[in-house]
Amino acid sequence: MGKNKKKNKKITKEMKKDKSTVSTKMKTKEYEKELAKLHGELVKLQQWVVHKRLKVCIVFEGRDTAGKGGVIKAITERLSPRIFRVVALPAPTDREKSQMYIQRYISHFPAAGEVVIFDRSWYNRAGVERVMSFCTEEQTQRFLDRTPGFEKVMIESGIILLKYWLDVSPEEQTRRLESRIDDPRKIWKLTPMDLKSYCLWDEYTKARDDMFAKTDVSWAPWHVAVSNNKKKTRLNVISHILSSIEYKELKRKKVKLPKRKVKEDNKKGGHAFNLIPEIF
User: Fold this and answer.
1) What pLDDT was estimated at residue 25?
2) Cα–Cα distance between 278 and 90 in angstroms, integer?
3) 101/109 Cα distance (integer angstroms)
4) Which residues pair with 166 in a beta bridge?
5) Who contacts 3 (Cβ-Cβ below 8 Å, separation ≥6)?
6) 88: CATH
7) SS3 238
8) Are the C-beta atoms of 150 and 207 separated by less than 8 Å?
9) Domain annotation covers residue 252
10) 57 assigned to some structural domain
């Protein structure tokens, strides 16, 4: 565990560097060009996952506004939701609270030929639940002690596990939260929980560092992405996923549409459609 502590200190040091070097704006045209290339590779990965019946589990964690949702959307927008499944669980029900903590997450683990992406995961216990006092300190420590062993069992069962922490600066978090206040597209993202969490920056930092110290292990390491620049973060994370899973492009037959005949009378259809107004 000594090596992990040194590694965590190095990560923390790097995250404290001047963030201006990573917040340089990226032109939308350049971003879309690079994203299109990566989407092509993700499709190849998707086909390989199905072909080889791989089981992939990707975890995204980070503070509020760190950009988890945007990264996940960038990954999945050109892929099949039946193969790349996103899991974003709500608060546990009374029944789930009575279960073994990890139980409700296990039911969403990937089967052969699937990639499951967790938008927040079992690591809620080490972060949100701990800081907001939704669990006891004893429960948190028990979770941190047992999670590396649990994840080793996951990997030994054949699951490829990737864990990502998106790290946003205090200044950028403030800017993003403020942008949600008056934007009708974003107001749903600003919850009472976000406002409470905003005042607890140092508490979340300690919780993150404790989590890294206990769960950043050789068989399931944490990968940190500084996420002040949304576009670059998305490209960097997708690139890292592609480099972390071995895959090959499968040969496929050339596709040619078959000939068909459509009678003139059938082009409009025989039913009187209730068309929506063409406003645009």
Assistant:
1) 86
2) 38
3) 15
4) 62, 225
5) none
6) 3.40.50.300
7) helix
8) no
9) no
10) yes
Q: Angle of helix 230-244 relative to helix 68-76, nearest 10 degrees?
A: 60
Residues with pLDDT less than 50, the chain: 1, 7, 11-12, 14-22
C-alpha count within 13 angstroms, C-beta hemisphere, residue 258: 3
In a domain, 164, yes or no: yes
- Beta bridge partners, 160, equal 56
What local confidence, expressed as pLDDT, does residue 192 receive? 86
Number of domains in the chain: 1
Rounded to an integer, what is the distance from CA 4 to the centroid of its chain? Answer: 23
The answer as to whether 270 is a domain residue is no
Cα radius of gyration (the chain): 22
Supply φ then ψ for residue 75, to 5 degrees. Answer: -70, -45
Residue 165 phi, psi dihedral angles, 5° rounding: -115, 120
Question: Distance (Å, rounded) from C-alpha 54 to C-alpha 47?
Answer: 10
Locate the DSSP E strands across 63-221: 84-87, 114-119, 159-167
What is the C-alpha to C-alpha distance for residues 122 and 36, in angstroms, rounded to an integer?
A: 32
In the three-class reduction of DSSP (H, G, I as helix; E, B as strand; rest coil), residue 259 is classed as: coil
> Based on the number of CB atoms within 10 Å of its own CB, is 153 exposed (0-12), middle (13-18) or buried (19 or more)?
exposed
pTM of the entire predicted model: 0.87
The pair of three-digit structure tokens given for residue 219, joined into one six-digit string:
């068989």
Hunting for tokens 């206990």 — which residue is that? Answer: 214
Q: Which of 61, 52, 107 is nearest to 85 (CA)?
A: 107
**10-31: burial string, b at 16+ Cβ within 10 Å, e else:** ebeeebeeebeebeeeeeeeeb
Sign of the torsion formed by the C-alpha atoms of 140, 145, 146 and 148:
positive
Contacts of 46 (CB under 8 A, 6+ apart): 79, 80, 83, 84, 115
At 273 the three-state DSSP class reads coil
Tell me which residue range forms the domain holding 78. Answer: 10-15+27-245
Measure the CA–CA gap between 8 and 4, rounded to whole angstroms: 6
Count of beta carbons in the 10 Å neighbourhood of residue 154: 18
